[in-house]
Amino acid sequence: MTEGGNRKAALVRRAAQVAAIAVAVLVLDIASKWLVERTYRLGEGVTLIQGFLYLVHVRNPGVAFGMLADVAWKWRLPFFIAVGVAAGWLLWTVFRQAGHLKAGRVAMGLILGGAVGNFIDRMRYGAVVDFIDVWAGKFHWPTFNVADSGISVGTGLLIFALWRARLL
Q: 137 by DSSP, 3-state: which?
């Protein structure tokens, strides 16, 4: 195989790895949201660890941490589209620069799977289904879901991988 053919084959393998991780995150996200929606009415939930971890079925019409929740959908939609385009471009750019890093591919798969999971909710409901509710004493972390976890963990892993490879 030629050098160009080897590079193309490696690129396809790397992209397939990112896609497989993204699909796994997406399936976990969709399944967990489906289970919460079938088990609890909006606003209902259950205590898992008293004073720390709860499951509660809520919908977040805003962006991260509920920001823009009070803004009309017609004004939020262009924001979501712009963020989606920017995120897609960023993932593609990072993939071209750091796709050879295994941790980078895992991170991109986590981010992509989470982004698609939340995008599906926004298209279905105009809001994201959240259900993981964490407290530490009086500190309350905003309620989140599997997709949010994928995005957050993936972003941290990507920053670490890029820093470790001296690309950041």
A: coil
Q: How far apart are CA 123 and CA 7, in angstroms?
A: 37
Strand ranges of the sheet holding 53-60, from the earlier edge strand across to the other edge: 45-49, 53-60, 128-136, 139-144
Counted domains in the chain: 1
Which tokens is 132 given? 């993981």
- Looking at residue 62, its amino acid is G
pTM (2 d.p.) = 0.83
Active site members: 130, 148
Model confidence over 54-107: pLDDT tens digits?
Answer: 999 999 987 666 655 565 656 667 767 777 787 777 777 777 776 778 898 999
Q: What count of Cα atoms within 13 Å lies in the side-chain half-sphere of residue 109? A: 20
The token pair that represents 81 in the structure block? 């589209």
The residue segments making up the domain with residue 92 are 3-164
Report in angstroms the alpha-carbon separations of 24 from 52, 80, 117, 164: 27, 23, 11, 26
